[in-house]
Amino acid sequence: MFTILGSQKPSIFKFSDTRVEDYFFEKLDKKREHPSNLDLLGQDMIDAGADIGSGTPYGSALIKIGQAQQRLGAAEREFVRSAMTTYVTPLKRFLEGDMKTIMKERKILENKRLDLDACKSRLRKARSMESQANAETELRISQAEFDRQAEITRLLLEGISSAHANHLRCLSDFVESQATFYNQCQQFMVDLQKELSSSTNLARGGKGAYPGLYPSSPSPSDMPLNSLPDDKKRARVLYNYEAYDSSELPLTADEVIVVSPLPVPDADWMMGERGGQKGKVPMAYLEILN
Predict the structure, then answer these.
(1) Is this model's pTM higher than 0.90 or not?
(2) Which of 120, 226, 244, 270 is deepest in the core (most CB within 10 A)?
(3) Per CATH, the architecture of 20-204 is what?
(4) Which helix (DSSP H) or strand (DSSP E) does residue 93 occupy?
């Protein structure tokens, strides 16, 4: 008992010296009163995509990526909540409860040991019979108090093993929550890659995400059955376009329409025709085929 509680501290008490709990409290024990960086990034990307236009490939991609960032932010918050419940809170409860009690009782035991040492010293220095008798009485009392406090501390220390087992289970739950979080993040990004690849035709002709930047020749199926008037041409739509009013014609990527100059020529706009529909269309969204 003297070996355990002498000048060498038991290893359990060195836990507070390593400050492992500080790391977890700093990283996980924080109330998120404001949006996370992922939430802010996602919202900014969504707002930018809406400003550019959800019907454009770039605007649509910004919105999709922004939404994915927000899903990542939500997953991060769920992981933090789970980590708090499964690990941080039990650890904090132990450190602020049982651990404080153990440290308090151990401090009392150290004081009792100092008192006992002082009584032994007085007994060694006693010269008269009366002083020896008094010193022996004090020694017996001090020894009894020390033994009682040592038993209390011993019982508390014996409970450490069960506390360790409980925290080991909590630590396993924490690792499981973290693994779930990273798996969710990976799945979000895989889904996002598939969605972007599908919506922008990343593999189309090896031209990348924006095929309209690389003019291509029409396939035989795109050739007109009948020749068009000289002032009209066929054009392939490069990107989706939402009409802003009734004077404009909405467009769908990859469809072929007939275009002609406006009555009042405009370098940025032409008159588009699809079946019986007519309306202004932006030149930047078209690839003239003939």
Answers:
(1) no
(2) 270
(3) Up-down Bundle (1.20)
(4) helix 89-96
